[in-house]
Specification:
The structure holds 2 protein chains of 2 kinds.
Chain A: E1 22-28, H1 33-49, E2 54-60, E3 78-83, E4 88-91, H2 97-104
Parallel strand pairs in A: 1-2
Antiparallel strand pairs in A: 1-3, 3-4
Chain B: E1 12-13, H1 20-23, E2 28-29, E3 33-38, H2 44-57, E4 63-67, H3 72-80, H4 86-91, E5 95-99, E6 107-109, H5 116-129, E7 133-137, H6 142-145, H7 149-166, E8 169-175, E9 193-202, E10 205-215, E11 224-230, E12 233-236, E13 252-253, H8 258-263, E14 269-270, E15 274-279, H9 285-298, E16 303-307, H10 312-320, H11 327-331, E17 335-339, H12 347-361, E18 365-369, H13 378-394, E19 398-404, E20 424-433, E21 436-446, E22 456-461, E23 464-469, E24 471-473, E25 476-478, H14 480-561
Parallel strand pairs in B: 3-8, 3-9, 4-5, 4-7, 7-8, 15-19, 15-20, 16-17, 16-18, 18-19
Antiparallel strand pairs in B: 1-2, 9-10, 10-11, 11-12, 13-14, 20-21, 21-22, 22-23, 24-25
Chain lengths: 113, 562
């Protein structure tokens, strides 16, 4: 259904079975500078903080415009955290690391007790 | 209004909103965005929805509704009360609704972004149904969801440019802000057409008003126009033209009261004239109008009555008591009552409502009963009434207004200052005398025809209304019982005189008879005398004869004895 840049399988798994997993969806519109930056930043965070327990799905709205309404996408790029709930949205090219971490409720491993 | 169009006219997208397209010389600018702004509850969304629905149903232009506030289902429900079947139109693929939810609490910003997603959504919706019209309601909600105002503003500007590039006719709604038309200054971006809606409360009565603030490249009405939202949708009342260039319909219509027609030189009122019936409470104003209505409907004309103090059914019932059956006209569809409490709307709204009803019913006669029920500041009242009369005259409608004269005898308020606008004025007056009141009627004026200057007494009975000539004699004008008494007195005098004459005649006849009898008696006496005389002479003759015989016998006897 989408232009997969990173491997993203869509299992219909229920969220509680694997509570530590992050399901992320990144909405972009073509290969713009902002989109590419966002993808790069996202990849970097996930590897740093969520290694092995994340899935990223990238959706290019230029190719699938009908998907924009479903997740209430206005701004591009938008990162949507589908799991764990609640749903969170982060807009922008994700260049502000602090905001992304707060937005995704990711606590760096070394801070977690 | 056709002459308002410039030679190389801007393409217009008609809204289908009654009256608005007249003001805007045809509609909104086609292929451009229009800003519709106003405070909360002004009817912005409704205006926008009407624009879309009419586009889809009347002008074959599909439309996209992008809602930044309400959910699609809510919008469909809200406008269902106006008779718009949004769900049906969505199902037919004529309208697409996209609800853009802006939830600041769910959004975290990190780095640069733009609103390409909105463009994609809008573009997708437009392409999916081939839309020509777009509504953004209310785009200002975006400003609550994002913190980067610079990006937002440039994106909004880009959006409006995009709309123009795509050739979409757009209605963008905006909330009224302090000191500017919209809170976020959207008017800076939308420079083609700006419509301002307003909802003002004056004397506890709300009046909706609409003004075209600017319209680049097109002439437009510049005034504030009252508009109306009810179960028939939005209608805007264009303030009628100030010129008196309407044609004058010929012909005379009967008032339905023979006596009144007789007072008017032409045997009735001119068709298309304005008639004022003024009088105190209970002088029979409504009865006269009922009679006029009956006469009009009897001629097969359509009649629309705006009644402010009674319901239509009540007027029908009351008219029955004077032998007028209005129910049959209602049933025949010739007569329609529009009853409303005067305090429900402001003056402008009443006028707007009347305007719309007149447009839809197309009557030949309009009755406003009573005009005096409409309250408001005098200047506004007069202006409204003037426009009302203009509206009716422009259509050649015969108008009948009633006006309640105040009991306190406030003579100037009597005609609400509109008598000069009226072509005919009938004044009903109570005359109080000898402990009773009677109704009288004058024709104060009747333009273009001679009319009786006399007062008539006005009687209502189960057989209808009739006018009786009041008694005018040396003792003054008398009405009611006084008239009857006066008439009775005159009658008594007449009878007495008659009796006298009769008596004299009888006396003469009697004396003639006496004399004749006397003559007859005398004649009889004469005859008796004659009779006697002849008898005497006969007797004499007989006696003479006897005497002769006796003498002869005696002589003979004497001769024998000798």
């Amino acid at each position: 259904m989408s232009d997969d840049i990173l491997p993203a399988d869509e299992p219909a798994a229920d969220p509680d079975s694997d509570s530590g997993r992050y399901k992320l969806r990144l909405y972009v519109a073509g290969q713009t500078a902002k989109s590419l930056t966002a993808m790069k930043n996202l990849e970097r965070f996930c590897e740093q903080h969520l290694a092995g327990r994340y899935e990223i799905e990238v959706i290019d709205l230029l190719k699938n415009p009908q998907l924009a309404a479903g997740d209430q996408i206005l701004a591009i790029p938008t990162l949507v955290r589908r799991l764990p709930s609640p749903l969170k949205r982060i807009i922008g090219d994700l260049s502000n690391t602090e905001k992304v971490l707060v937005g995704l409720d990711i606590r760096p491993k070394d801070v977690t007790p | 209004m056709a002459d308002l169009h410039p030679p190389s006219t801007l393409a217009k997208a008609p809204t289908g909103i009654a009256g608005f397209d007249d003001i805007a010389s045809g509609g909104l600018p086609a292929g451009r965005p229009t800003l519709v702004c106003g405070a909360a509850g002004c009817g912005k969304t409704l205006f926008a929805v009407t624009f879309l629905v009419n586009g889809a149903t009347l002008f074959n232009e599909n439309g996209v509704f992008v809602s930044f506030e309400e959910r699609a289902e809510d919008i469909a429900t809200n406008v269902a009360s106006l008779g718009y079947d949004m769900a049906g139109l969505v199902a037919e693929g004529k309208i697409a609704i996209d609800h853009v939810r802006v939830e600041p609490s769910e959004i975290e910003e990190s780095g640069a972004y733009d609103l390409e997603g909105l463009f994609i959504r809008l573009g997708f919706a437009v392409d999916s149904i081939g839309a020509k019209r777009v509504v953004l309601d209310t785009i200002e909600n975006l400003f609550a969801g994002f913190t980067d105002m610079a990006v937002l503003r440039s994106e909004v500007r880009r959006l409006f440019g995009w709309i123009k590039d795509r050739g979409l006719t757009a209605v963008i709604t905006g909330e009224r802000g302090d000191g500017q038309l919209t809170r976020q200054g959207l008017e800076e971006y939308v420079s083609d057409c700006v419509v301002l809606l307003d909802n003002r409360v004056d004397h506890q009565i709300t009046t909706r008003r609409l003004r075209v603030v600017k319209y680049r490249g097109s002439a437009h009405g510049t005034n504030e126009y009252p508009f109306l939202i009810d179960d028939k949708g939005i209608s805007v009342l264009p303030v009628t033209s100030a010129d008196l260039d309407y044609g004058v319909p010929e012909g005379v219509v009967s008032s339905g009261i023979a006596g009144l027609d007789a007072m008017l030189g032409m045997g009735g009122f001119y068709r298309g004239s304005s008639i004022l019936v003024s009088g105190e409470a209970g002088t029979g104003k409504t009865s006269i109008t009922s009679s006029l209505i009956d006469a009009a409907c009897g001629r097969g004309e359509r009649c629309l009555a705006f009644v402010f103090e009674e319901s239509g059914a009540q007027i029908c019932r009351n008219a029955r008591s004077i032998g007028i059956d209005l129910d049959r006209h209602v049933r025949a569809g010739l007569l329609r009552f529009e009853a409303a409490r005067p305090s429900v709307f402001g003056l402008e709204m009443h006028l707007a409502r009347m305007h719309r009803d007149i447009e839809s019913f197309d009557p030949a006669v309009v009755v406003v009963d009573p005009l005096s029920a409409l309250h408001g500041p005098t200047s506004e009242l007069q202006a409204t009434l003037m426009r009302m009369i203009d509206l009716l005259k422009g259509r050649g409608i015969t108008a009948v207004f009633t006006s309640l004269r105040s009991e306190r005898g406030g003579e100037p308020a009597d005609d609400l200052g509109v008598s000069s606008l009226m072509d005919a004025w009938i004044k009903l007056l109570h005359v109080e005398a000898n402990g009773e009141r009677s109704r009288t009627l004058y024709v104060i004026k009747a333009r273009g025809m001679g009319h009786s200057q006399q007062v008539r007494e006005f009687l209502m009975s189960a057989t209808g209304i009739s006018l009786v000539e009041a008694y005018i004699g040396p003792a003054g004008v008398m009405t009611g019982t006084a008239r009857l008494v006066q008439e009775a007195q005159e009658k008594a005098v007449r009878i007495r005189r008659q009796l006298d004459e009769d008596r004299r005649a009888r006396a003469a006849a009697r004396s003639r008879l006496t004399i004749e009898r006397q003559i007859a008696e005398l004649r009889a006496g004469l005859e008796a005398i004659d009779d006697e005389e002849s008898r005497f002479s006969e007797e004499d003759a007989t006696r003479e004869a006897l005497l002769d015989d006796e003498r002869r016998e005696l002589r003979a006897r004497r001769n024998g004895a000798e």
